[in-house]
Structures are given as C-alpha cells and as structure tokens.
Amino acid sequence: MRASGIATCAITPSASSWHRLLERAWAGDVVVEDLSYNPIAVMQRFEDEPPDCRFTRAVVVAAAERGQRPPGTVTAYRWNGVLPNDEEVHRAVTEAVTGVIALDNTLVVTRHFGGLPDEVVVIEVEPGVQEFGEDFSEPVARVIDHICELAVSMATDASAVGQLPIGGLGGGIPMATGQCLS
Q1: Angstrom distances, CA of residue 10 to CA of 16, 64, 77, 94
Q2: Closest C-alpha to 154, from 123, 116, 115
Q3: Which of 8, 39, 67, 116 has the fewest CB atoms in 10 Å of its CB?
C-alpha cells in the first residue's frame, strides 16, 4: 500500500512552486498531482488506484478564502471527515457536476462517494486575491516555500501529521501569517 499522496486542489500552481514539488526526489509511495479539476473526476482519480495500492493519506494543498484570516495565513489540520447534512452534500454534488472547483466542495464530494483515504491532511492558505493568473498574490508568494515544505513534511513524516489538530472543514491552527515559521 502507498503510505501517502500529495494532491493540490484549488491553487493554480505557479510554475516555480509546482515544479519544485514535481521535481523533488520522492519515495515510491508518494504521488504528486495537480487535482484542481472537477471533484467527481478527482474522486474517480482516487478510485482508479488498484485496491492494494490505494492511498492511505492524502495531503491536499489549497487556497481557501475563509474571510476571518489575513491573506497569506497558512493553516494545516487533519480533516475529521465529517460531512455536512444531506442537503449540503447534495448541493456540493450539484456544484461539482456543474464545474465548481473549491476545496470544501472537493473534500465533501470525494468523501461522500468514498474516494478519499481515511487520513486527509489539509493545508490551506488565505488568498490575497481570488482570480485566475500565473502568479500568486504577494501575501501568498511570501509563504509558498513554507507551504511546499509543509506539504513535503506531511507526505513523508507520519509523526508530523500526528501533531496536527483534527478539525472540520476550515479547521486548524494558523501556522504563519505572511511569513515562514522556523
């Protein structure tokens, strides 16, 4: 079985940060992919793995506008996997079918249909600007190296994962605001 996988959702990867993760020398049990596409397709991607090679951990990195954090704030947590009520799940599936690509929506849809592994680590960054483009906003650009290193740690170090708080969607403890922690 694979020990972990890294997936990116919702962040449109800049060339430098995305290539930094892709070009890294990874152990054979880590897969790095850009999953910033339809949540139904993401679920199918996870299910494409043969049963004996399914991921045991997903590390999802995304920009998520929560509104109560300053831009550039990095938050990491182990998602408790708790789904919203049936009406909200139905809304998430409907949005997924119509092309909505967002962190919470992707997690809800892939969990609802059984595509996610049991262990899901979420690394969020509060975006400075929500728009398409090849570059990050200045607050996100300041913490992108920290985000990449955090993703590497969460994909390769189970003890580091165990130190993260467990929380619902949007849960977790801010780890940095516009700066990298040592």
Answers
A1: 17, 8, 17, 18
A2: 123
A3: 67
* Paired strand residues for 120: 58
- Select from 139, 133, 85, 135 the least CA-distant residue to 112: 85
Place of tokens 């595509």: 115
* Global pTM value: 0.84
Mean confidence (pLDDT) of the chain: 82
Q: Are residues 6 and 62 in contact, defined by beta-carbon separation less than 8 angstroms?
A: no
Residue type, 145: D
Tokens of 31: 């897969």
Q: Do 109 and 98 meet the contact criterion of CB atoms below 8 Å apart?
A: no
d(CA 87, CA 161): 31
List the domains of the chain with CATH numbers.
Answer: 5-177 (3.40.50.1450)
User: Above 80 in pLDDT, residue 57?
Assistant: yes
